[in-house]
Records
---
Amino acid sequence: MKEIKAAEITKEVKRLCVEAACDLPEDVEKLLREAQEKEESEFGCYSLEKVVENLELARKDMVPMCQDTGILVVYAELGEDVKVADSSLDDAINEGVRQAYVEHPLRKSVVTDPLFDRKNTGDNTPAIIYTEIVPGDKLKIQILPKGAGSENMGALKMLKPADGVEGVKEFIINTVVKAGGNPCPPVIVGVGIGGTMDKATMLSKKALGREVGERHPDVRYKALEEEILAEINKSGVGPQGLGGRVTALEVRIETFPTHIATLPVAVNLNCHAARHKEVIL
Amino acid sequence: MSDIKNIKVPLTTEAVKDLKAGERVTISGVIYTARDAAHAKLLKALEAGEALPLELEGAVIYYVGPCPAKEGQIIGSCGPTTSYRMDSFAPTLINKGLKGMIGKGPRDEKVINAMKENNAVYFAAIGGAAAVIANAVKKAEVIAYPELGTEAVRRLEVEDFPCIVAIDSKGNNLYESGVEAYKQG
C-alpha cells in the first residue's frame, strides 16, 4: 500500500488552483489564435485580439485571466493501492482550495446555502469532488475552475430514442445559439449523451476537461462533433455574441450506454478561458 | 466602427443620444460597480425610500465582481459579468436617472424599453479580458455594502476603458444585427 500524505495533496491542489486561474493551457491558447485567423467581423477580431493580449498579461503578471475564478470541479482518480494519510481525500483537496483562494488574489465565488442564506464561504470551498477508484498506486487530480456565466447556459434534455441523431443535433445547436453572448463565446461545448439524467450531465462536464484535439474514439461521434461545430459556427453569434464566424472552438461528445426508453443529452458550456490543470502523485 | 470615441462619465442625455450600436468607445471618468446582490440591496433601499449610496443621475453602473487586488495593484482582474441577471432591476434604476450600463450579453425587452424611454445606453465590455480591463482602473474604493465582498458597490475612476455600444438609446441592438450579419444558411 502506497501512502500519500494529505499535506502533499493540499500543496498540489493549491498550486493547480493558482496556475489554472492565471495560466491558460497552451492548447486552448492555440485554439484562440486559430480563431483569430478564422474570424472576419471587425469587433470579433478586436475582441479576440484583446482576449489573447489578456492571456499573455495574466501569465506574465500571474494574475487571474478572468475575475470569475470559478467554483472548483475536481476529478480524482485514486489508485486501489493508495492510502491517503492524515485526513480524508476530500478534506485534503478542500484545504488546498482554501489556501489558494485565501492566500492569492483569486475571487471567492462560493455561497453557503444556495437559496436562503447565499452567504459567501470566504474561501471558495467546498469544491465539487468526483472520486473514482482505479487500479494502480497513483493519485491523479484534475481541477476545472468553472465560471458561472457559461455554467448558467448549460441544459439537459431527456429526448426520446426516436428523436435520434437529428434531435440530438438540434438540441445541442439550439442550446449554444440561444446562449448567445452570455457564456463569453467562443465557447467549448461539452456534450454528454446516454446514461441517465445525472450521468449525461456528468459526462458533459467531464468533456470540458478533455485535451484540445482529442476526439471521440467512435468515428460516427467524431464526425458528429465536427458537423455540430461547423453548424454552430454558421449561426453568426461570434465572439462575445456580437456577430462573427467563431462561436465555438470545439464540440466534445462523451457517451455512455443507456436505457431502452431514453436518450438523455446534456450540454455544458465553457467560456474561452477553458481552464484546467492536472497532476499525478 | 474604426473611429474610437472617447466618452466621459457621468453621461448627459446629449452624449447618450449620440452613441450608436456598433461603435467602439473608450470610457473615462467615474463609474460604479454593482452586480446581483448589490442590485437587490439598491432596489430594497429605493422601496424603503432610503437614500442610495451613489448619485444615479447620469451614472454608469458596471456589472462586475472583481478579484482581490494583488500587492501593488489598484484592483484585481475585473471583467464584465453576464448582464441579464440584472434585467429585473435595471428598469427601475434607469427610470431614476441611470444613463449607462456596462456588462456582457443581451438584455431583455423591458430593459431596452426603459433605455429608449429615458435615453440610456448599454455597453459591452470584453468578457474574459479581466486583467487588461484592470489596467484601465486608476482608483477604486468600496462605497457601500462591504459585507458583500466582491459584490460590494465600488466607485471606480477609469481611463480609456474599452467597450462597444451594444444597445443604443434608440433600441438598436448589436446582439441581433451583428449576429444577423454573419448568419449563414
---
Amino acid sequence: MTQPVLSVRDLEVEFVTRRATLRAINGVSFDIAKGEVLGVVGESGAGKSVTGLAVIGLIDPPGRISGGEIQLSGTRIDHLPPEQIRRIRGKRIGMIFQDPLTSLNPLYRIGDQIVETIRTHTSLSESAARRRAIDLLAEVGIPAPEKRIDGYPHEFSGGMRQRVVIALAICAEPELIIADEPTTALDVSVQAQIIALIKRLGRDHGTAVMLVTHDMGVIAETCDRVAVMYSGRIAEIGPVQEVVRNPLHPYAKGLMGAIPTLAGDDKRLVQIPGAMPRLSAIPPGCPFNPRCALAFDRCRVERPEPIRQGTQSVACHLFEPAKETAA
Amino acid sequence: MSEAVVPHPGEDGAQPSRANAGWFRRALDSDIFHSFRRSKLTMLAALITLLFFLIAIFASWLAVQNPFDPSQLQLLNSRIPPLWTADGQSPFLLGTDEQGRDVLSGILYGLRISLAVGVLGVVFSGLLGIGLGLVAGYFGGPVDSVIMRIADVQLTFPAILIALLVNGVAKSLLGNRLDEWSMLGVLVLAIGLSFWVQYARTVRGSVMVEKSKDYVAAAQLIGLPAPKIMLRHVLPNTTGPILVIATINLALAIITEATLSFLGSGMPDTMPSLGTLIRIGNNYLFAGEWWIVAFPGVALAGLILSINLLGDWLRDALNPKLR
Amino acid sequence: MLAFTLRRAVQAIGVMLAVGVIAFAMFRFAGDPVNQMVSIDTSAAERASIRQSLGLDDPVLVQFGRYFINALQFKFGVSYQFRLPVSSLLAERMPATLELAICATLFAMVCGILMGVYSALRRDTVLARLFQAVSLIGISLPTFLIGILLIYLFAVTLGWLPSFGRGEVVKLGWWSTGLLTISGLKALIMPSITLGLFQMTLIMRLVRAEMLEVLRTDYIRFARARGLTTRAIHFGHALKNTLVPVITVAGLQFGSVIAFSIITETVFQWPGMGLLFVQAVQNVDIPIMAAYLLMVSLIFVTINLVVDVLYTVVDPRLRATVGRAS
C-alpha cells in the first residue's frame, strides 16, 4: 500500500480547565489515502471537529495535543512550531467550516480574500493570483466569476458562499481537505450540490478528504470509508458499505438504525437511549456502556481497544477473541 | 436586554445536585458570591466603599471640628501643613486651609455631602427612570415614542452639560433665595434629570417583553389587574441590571456633583463637598500648599474607584455573557 | 442611500427644533431679560418701553418665531455680563475650543487604539494588565483632578509646561490658532491630555473588547485555517473589523469632547467656549447659556449625521441594507 496522505496515531487532545483536565480525544488512530474520502460521524461533542482542528493545528489554548502523532504524507506535523504549521495550513491542508455565512470576512471583497490566500502560499503576482482566483471560482461553480470576484460576501447566497469557502480551501491545491460539517448550515437543496462539489474536487485533484458530519445520509453517499466516533474515541472504522450495512459496534448499530430508509417503513426508527456523557463525566471502561444494551461487567471496568474484524475495526469487548487479558 | 436580567443560575452542573440545599446555601454557592470571594480586589473595594459610607455617617464624631460652623474656624490656624511635616500642628492631622479649616474634618463632612447628593441623585434618577420606563412600556404608542425620543436626544448630551444647564436655570429662577440646602436639592435635581435614561430603557424593554407573554392576556381575561401582575414580574427581572446601573451611576453622580462644585456651580464654600474643597485647594496649589487640594482629591478618587470596581464586578457577575 | 441621508437629516432637524424650544424657554422664562439689562433706578415706564422694544409683550409663539429666525442667522441676543452680542463672543472663543477638542481626540484615538490592540493581542502580559489598571483609574479620576495633578507635576514642580492659557496665538483671518507657535503648542499639551484621557480609556476598552470579539469570530478562525500570517490576520482582518465600530464611537464622542472641554477649560483657564459657558452659568448669563446649548447641539447633531452616513460608506453590509430599505 502506498503511503497515506494523513496518518493519525493514538491522538490525544486535552483541555485544561480550572476544575479538571478534560480529555476530548483519547487515542484516535486512522489513515486517509490519496483521493479517499473519510467520513467522521458521531453526536455533537464526540470529538469529530476537535480531531479536524487538531490535524490542522488550530486547537486553541486551553486545549492542546497531549499525545500521539499526526503525519502528513509521511512527515510528522503535530509538534511543528507555529510558523511552520501555519505554512502547511491552507497550502497542504485546506479547511472548510460549518457556517459559510460567518466564514468570510464581511468587510473584504471575496476576490481580495482569495488573492490574499493564494499570495500567502505561492509566489504568484497580484494579477496572476487574480486570474487564478477567477478560475477557482469558476471551478467551484460560481457563475460569471470575473464579475462576482469583486462582490462582498453578503452579496452571495449561503450555498454560493460555501462555494467561495471551498475555493479558498483548495486555492493552493492542498493534499488534504478537512470539511467540518460543510452542509449543516445550508438548505437541503443546496447540500447535495456542495457534497457533490467536494466529492468531484477530491476525485479530480486526487485530494484526500476528511468529511466531518453528523449526517449519515451524507456519509453513505459520499465517503469511501467512515469512522464512527463516540466520547473522543473511534468506536468503529471501516469501508462505508460495510459499516452502514453491517455495523458491528452497538453504538454504530444504533446510529445506523437511526437513519430513516424509504423501504423499511414498517420498522420504527431505533433510538439510542440516554445521551453521550459529558467530557467531565466519562464513565470508566467503555464510554458507551451506560447506554449499551449488551454491556457486561468487563465493559464497565476495561477500556476496549480497536479489534480488526475483516475490513472493519471495532473497539468493543464483544469482538474480543477468546483469551485471557492481563487486566 | 432580557438575557441580562436573570442572574446566572449556576455553573455547568459538574457539581452534584443541589436540590436539597436551602435558599441560603444556594446563595452562598451562587456564581455571584463565588466571584465575589474570588476577587480580592472587589472585596477590598467593597470594604473601602463601606468604610467611606461609615465615615460619612459618623463624621461629626470623628472630626475635630465642624467645618460648616464658621465660629469654630480660627484664622490663626490657617494654612498649617500636615502633622508629619516640620510645621505640622496637633490636632490638624492633614493640615488646615486658608480659613483655618481642618482639612480632615472638611473631608469627613464633605464626604457626607458628596455621598448624600450622589445617593439622593441616584435614587431620584432611578425613580424617575423606572417610572417613565414603566409608563412608556405599558402604554406604548405615542406616550412611548415621546418618552423614548426625549431619552434618545438626552442620551447624546453629556450629563455634565445637562446638569450645568439645570443648575443655571435654577439659579436664575431662585436668585438669592438659593441657600446651601436648596443648592443641595438643585444638585440632586440636576443629577436626577441627567441620569434617568438608562433605567427607563431597561425597564421599558422588560415591560415590552412581559407584555407580550400569555399570562398577561390570561390575567386580563379573568379580570385580574394586568399592570399589577406585570409589575410583579418586571421588577424582579430588572433588579439585576438596575442594581448595576445604579452602582455605576453612583460613581457618575458623585463625579458630576464634584465637577459642578469644582466649576463653582455646586455646593458653596460655606457647606463644601469634596468638589468644593478641591476648588478651594486648587487656588493654593501654586503657593506650594498642596495638602489643601491633595487630600480631598485622594478621598474623591478613592471613593469613585472603589464604587467603580464594585460596579464593574457586579456587571460581570450578573451578566455572564460579558465575561 | 439618499433617502437614508434625508431621513437622518429630518431627524436631526427635529432634534434641533426641540433643543431650540428649550433654549428659547430658558432665554425667555428663566430670568427676565429686562431686569438684567437695566439698573435699579430705571423707571417702570422705561422698563415697559424696553419690554416693548424687545418685543417681550408679543404672543409667545411670535417671540419663539423671532428667536428661531434670529438663531438661524446666529443672532443669540446680548450677553448680560459683557453687553456684547453673544454670537461674536462665541465666534471669538470657538477656535480655542475646537483646536483643543481636535488635539484631545487625536491623542485619545492614537493612544487608545494602540493600547487597546496591544492589550487584546497580548492579553496576559504585564503591560496589558497595566493598561487595564490605567483605564480603570482614567475612568475613575474626575477630569479636573487629572488636570490639577498634571499642573502640579509639570507646571508647579517641574516648570516644563505653562499652567494656563493658550500661549501665543496667530490670527488667520478670524481664526486664532495656537498651533503655529512653540508656546501655543506647549500650552496645548496638558489640556489635550486632560481632556482626551477619558476618551482614551473609553476607546482603549472598546478596542480591546471589540478586538477580542472579532478574534473569536469564524472568519478569523477560517483566516487562520487558510494559513494567513498572524500579522495579516491581526492587522489586516481583525483590526479593520474592529475599527469600524470604534471609529463610529470615537466620532460620536467628539461632541462629548467639546462639552467636556467645559471642565478642562476651567482648570487650565483656556479661553474657549466652555470657559465662557461656565462663567455664564455662574453669573446667570442666560443668553450665553442658551446659545451655547444651541451651538453644542448643532455640533452634536451634525457629527451624528456625518457619522451615520460615513458608517454606511465604510461597511458594505450596511450599505446594502440601507440601499434595500430606501
